[in-house]
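Key result, reporting period 2: structure in, sequence out.
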């Protein structure tokens, strides 16, 4: 929030704000020919309206200039303006692109958020939200006074981070193993952004990442250990199963079982 004179001011009314966000704009265009005005007001009345909402008049003029420049660029490029207002997700996705260093995940035990590169910050005491912001938040700015506080906070979903910053995520594959039900070598994926864990334990097909290692795990844990779970057709024309699934007719024919296993290995 922009404060007058660079000093903390009384907190504005939550009028016009979302239940889980402080980043939705206040309806300050009313009466100035912006949006859907009912009556036009004078410049003096408009400045009074801004002061009543604790918004810096000079900053509003700067925002108007930026909006005008962006509008000109859109027209020059032949782009089309939105026919409907942006949704909560669309609005916060666009803001998240420039605020990736200000995301935070709430601690399970205390009332602080773990942010990028190991920082800890708290919700600003003046935050006016009708609902709790949730486990994942993004802050418009981080300000350090007696503590490090996040101001202008909003609730976000962790999958949004992967959507806008997938190229910045550092991913690790842990515990590759054979899964009999899925019939594939699976690993657990862990992704971090600036040291903050975005997701953990996601199952991925390890064969697409490291086919050589996946083949070794398949032979060791599926074939040798008898955990294949279904029959396969070998080049010899006889369907074979894993060693553990051999029926009563297989007893007394150790050479056949050994030959079947060698055939499995040759088939791979």
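The corresponding designed sequence is given below.
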């Amino acid at each position: 929030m922009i404060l007058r004179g660079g000093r903390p001011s009384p907190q504005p009314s939550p009028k016009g704000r979302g239940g889980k966000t402080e980043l939705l704009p206040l309806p300050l265009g009313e009466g100035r020919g912006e949006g859907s005005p009912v009556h036009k007001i004078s410049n003096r009345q408009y400045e009074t309206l801004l002061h009543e909402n604790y918004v810096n008049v000079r900053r509003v003029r700067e925002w108007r200039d930026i909006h005008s420049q962006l509008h000109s660029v859109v027209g020059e490029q032949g782009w089309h303006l939105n026919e409907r207002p942006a949704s909560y997700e669309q609005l916060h996705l666009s803001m998240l692109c420039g605020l990736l260093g200000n995301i935070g995940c709430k601690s399970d035990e205390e009332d602080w958020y773990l942010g990028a590169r190991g920082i800890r910050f708290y919700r600003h005491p003046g935050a006016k939200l009708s609902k709790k912001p949730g486990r994942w938040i993004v802050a418009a700015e981080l300000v350090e006074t007696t503590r490090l506080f996040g101001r202008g906070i909003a609730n976000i979903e962790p999958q949004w981070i992967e959507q806008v910053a997938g190229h910045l995520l550092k991913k690790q594959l842990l515990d590759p193993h054979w899964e009999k039900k899925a019939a594939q070598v699976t690993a657990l994926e862990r992704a971090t952004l600036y040291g903050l864990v975005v997701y953990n334990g996601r199952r991925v097909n390890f064969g697409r990442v490291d086919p050589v290692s996946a083949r070794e795990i398949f032979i060791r844990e599926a074939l040798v250990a008898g955990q294949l779970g279904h029959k396969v057709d070998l080049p010899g024309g006889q369907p074979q199963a894993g060693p553990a699934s051999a029926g009563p007719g297989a007893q007394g024919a150790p050479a056949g079982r050994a030959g079947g296993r060698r055939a499995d290995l040759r088939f791979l």
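The first helix runs from residue 43 to 52. The mean pLDDT is 78. This case is discussed further under Risks and Mitigation.
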